[in-house]
């Protein structure tokens, strides 16, 4: 009932405003041209009434007609339908066009009336001054309410105790639009106090009353001089190197930072204060975003059945997003963690309603499950992202790293080979290079597995490999439908480093620690890592997959490595806080299996380039595939007994693996040799 009483009042108030505006316009158009005559005759009313009476008569006879015509023209130009509280240049031009139209009609009408009454034509100044005065009177009343509100908001911002003083970096088109948007806002406590621009011709000049006080190098000085609280970087087309330089300067000021995203991210083309976002840590990487020609990827993936293992994880889910946009025949997501799988399923069904999508829950360690998946769907392309990746956790559970990473990869690769899979892409890591932790060693074994599969398939010796399973299920192998000479699967691996924002990444961890007030825990002041965004990494993975001939290990160029200590300090500064003052940084020491730096290649590997300079192929190292598979089968039995010293046997299998702090004592090596000898009669079932 309350709502029903309110609506009639608002309608009445709106109609009353229109009526009052019409009455004002009637008076304005009449007064404008009379005032024009008065000005023409030197503001002498007596002269106007006596010597120029014929002009007054012509004006008086035509003005009733002109008044009606003007109201009709004003209505046609929507001068009674605009919301003048938010009037802008569109309304300004509407008033201008309406004035020009009525001025033309007035000229014609008065000329006709003058001739009918036998008078001379009106002075030219009459028409000119009349049109100008009418325009001023019409526009003034319509914009006055907006100016009053704007002045009130400015005073409120100036007087508000919590008002924030803002510096805009960038006085180009985008900066002017942000400035205009902030000036017009009635509910913001942000107050622009100065602008920065690198164009020397702009320095010292004003935009909307605000001075361009210097270039990027003057930012610290001007922040102090103008007591700036916030810095908004409003240059959407800036290069990554220039952006990094400006951010490096800005973050030393302890001001809150926001930035306008790149032009390609402004999908609707509108630029306003609401488009400003917090500065992301990837903005400080100092390189342009990696772009990939997706045409080859499109043709490779189109109309194919594609399986992504670990499809709910950080890399796996982004793989699914990019694959879904390439018109696959069918996409299968396979993951053991149902919450992540559910999230990516809902996202893809909403974004790509026509996508043929199946989401399966299961483990790559489960022989029966993974074999059934391949037998049912016959995927043509497999992206194997399922893995345990957390270094310290795997150091405490080494057998689980082997079971999930090595045995899971072997079982998935075996099932893919015997079910017509065309290409198998393993997602590897730079931690597989000269590993000092079991996670890296397990991923190196995964690389060796897929290289061995590829080599034996090319030699027509796939029958030398056997399925791996701990359960008594020898009939599993009989479910496969292809013979050795029909197996054509190409196996490749893609190796890259840390991914910003992925599960287990330091970035989310640091942000949580900052939100709690610290301390931010860094393992070592000198530790460095390569970083790449998730979409960048995945797009390169997809492109590497299209380059494959089988057996390659593709290495992604991840740019310049970043010190984790610098990363932590930058995150603190980007939060508007001071490292070691507001937020303490605590060095905890290297964790088990952790290295100060990661390597892209082993000493025995070399690189050759591909069509994409950011993707290289490393020369594979030589090893005995048959010996590898025999040792993996033995390793499987060892791991399912869950011994604590499994690392010693892995160290024998991966010559480049040297566990941090434990280099395989003679006692451990001897014990393992005895254990392996005792198992030599095992048949693998």
How do the strands and helices of this protein lay out in sequence?
Elements (H helix, E strand, L loop, with lengths): L1 H39 L4 H6 L2 H24 L12 H28 L7 H36 L4 E6 L3 H12 L5 E7 L9 E2 L2 E5 L4 H7 L4 E4 L6 H11 L5 E4 L17 E2 L16 H7 L3 E5 L4 H11 L5 E6 L2 H14 L5 E5 L5 H11 L3 E4 L6 H6 L1 H20 L5 E7 L8 H21 L31 E7 L1 E3 L5 H10 L4 E3 L5 E2 L1 E3 H14 L5 E4 L5 E2 H11 L10 E3 L19 E3 L5 E4 L6 H15 L7 H7 L12 H13 L7
Parallel strand pairs: 1-2, 1-5, 2-4, 5-6, 8-9, 8-11, 9-10, 11-12, 12-13, 13-18, 14-17, 15-20
Antiparallel strand pairs: 3-4, 6-7, 16-19, 18-22, 21-22
Helix pairs in contact: 1-3, 1-5, 3-4, 4-5, 10-11, 10-17, 12-14, 14-15, 14-19, 15-19, 15-20, 16-18
Short description:
It is built from 21 helices and 22 strands. The protein has about 675 residues and is of the alpha/beta class.
Mean pLDDT: 78
Note the total helix count: 21
Shape: elongated
Main beta sheet, described? 9 strands, mixed
Task: Record the strand order, biggest sheet.
Answer: 10-9-8-11-12-13-18-22-21
Fraction of residues in β-strands: 5-15%
The total count of strands amounts to 22
Determine Rg (CA atoms, Å).
37 Å
User: Which runs of at least 5 residues are low in confidence (pLDDT < 50)?
Assistant: 1-7, 662-685
Distance between the termini: 78 Å
Structural category: alpha/beta
Helix content: 40-55%
